[in-house]
Amino acid sequence: MKKPEWEKYKVGSPSKRRNWTEPGCEPFSTVRHIAHIHDAVRIIEDGMIRSSLVWDESRLKNSRTCVSWVSPNSWAHGSIYGNVSFEFDWETIVNDRDLYWVEDVKSYNPPAYRILITDKDYDSDESVVPYDETKPEGPLYWDGKTWYRNGHYTGEIMVDSDLSLRKCREIEFVGHHLRYCTKNGSSCPELGSSQYEAGTRIMANLIGRGLRRHRRLFLEKQNDELEFIPNTASILSKLIQDFTDEFEDTDVVVSGKNRNPLLKAALILYGEEHYDEAFSLSKLLGSKSAMKKSFRSILSKFFRLSPEQIDADLMPGRRSRSVD
Ligand SMILES: [Zn+2]
After folding, report:
1. Looking at residue 83, what is its pLDDT?
2. For the chain, which terminus, N or C, has the lower number of CB atoms within 10 Å?
């Protein structure tokens, strides 16, 4: 009998040493969907990752199966999927669904394995093969308590449903790989863009437009108090710093209640990469301190955090926060 395709991606044995994870058999509990900037904004507007037809050279390409993609991998040298990472608990995704082996992709470095997660019956579909996660014979293994993956390879999990952001744990910004992009190839405008370039654009767009329905994905609970996750705090600090660094005095100044709408308009321009126009417009606020006051007020309303907390977390010189 022919060996199953998944055998060469088989997990190793879990580590028995304390403080050491066996890369060939890494426990995991979260997965991520990573998207490019415009797609990420649309996901946040829609409140969900919409499943779509498989467009690359996949066995599922002609099957009309619509999938949402997630991966248990993290990307030390930049993600090949974009800059914006939506993190989910793996349990909420796998959730008693069935697994089917789809294929491997050897052109990836490292090669990728693809597994379909579904609550439909694909047993009669010849493009996929039922995959038993309870046997340590392929890249994903469940011992009844813990999920393991073979960390030497790229995992691409295809879920044949939409993924609601209600199940998402948090959004983080990551760097895009310098040379590789699975969506746009070598013409991707975001190749090599840092978490800061992408993160500041998205946050400026969301805050400028008041799209705050999923703000909790940028916050976490610490000692019963909500605060920014460190990644968001560093991105927002950078955004405020960009506007502060470019500030110059001007004679024409708006005052009072016109200030916040003006800064929001400048943020929308920034989000669309019209940086010069954004900074020119923000000068009409009159002074750096007036600009910081507007940031404080807008961010405080957007995230429902106190102005003092905005100061503590985001204004330079108050308190430093580190990012992974
Ligand atoms: Zn790209």
Report:
1. 96
2. N
